[in-house]
Design a protein that fits this description.
- It is a single chain.
- The radius of gyration is 21 Å and the shape is extended.
- It has 105 residues and is an alpha+beta fold.
- It contains one helix and eight strands, in the order H-E-E-E-E-E-E-E-E.
- The N and C termini lie far apart (47 Å).
- The protein has one domain.
Length: 105
C-alpha cells in the first residue's frame, strides 16, 4: 500500500470518528436514603435572561450524609428533547434520587 493511501485512510478514519453523535444520558438514580427529602423550596425566577431558555427548578441532593439544596437555573432547550424534572422516588422504607434529564420527544 502506498504511503499516500495509508495517510488518506488514516485521515478519513479520523474525520469520520468526529461524526459520532452520543445519545443524551438517561436518568441517574442515586443511592437509597432512609430520610425523606425536605419539601422543595419556592424559587422566584422571573423572565429568562435569554429568549427561549427554560427554567430548570432547584432540588434537594443527598451529599455527604445530608440534603443540600441545588438552586434552579435557566437552560437552553435541546432540539427534539424535553426536560424531565428531578424527583425523589419512595421505595419501601428508602428514598432514591432521580436527577432531571433531557428525554427525546
Amino acid at each position: 500500500m502506498s504511503p499516500k493511501l495509508v495517510a488518506l485512510s488514516a485521515l478519513s478514519a479520523l474525520l469520520l470518528s468526529a461524526c459520532v453523535v452520543a445519545p443524551a444520558p438517561g436518568p441517574y438514580y442515586g443511592q437509597p436514603v432512609a430520610v425523606a427529602p425536605p419539601a422543595p423550596r419556592v424559587e422566584y425566577y422571573g423572565a429568562p435572561p435569554v429568549v427561549g431558555q427554560i427554567w430548570i427548578g432547584g432540588n434537594w441532593a443527598w451529599v455527604g450524609g445530608r440534603y443540600d439544596w441545588v438552586p434552579g437555573h435557566w437552560e437552553r432547550p435541546q432540539p427534539g428533547y424535553r426536560w424531565v424534572p428531578h424527583r425523589w422516588d419512595h421505595h419501601g422504607d428508602r428514598w432514591r434520587e432521580r436527577r432531571g434529564y433531557w428525554e427525546r420527544n
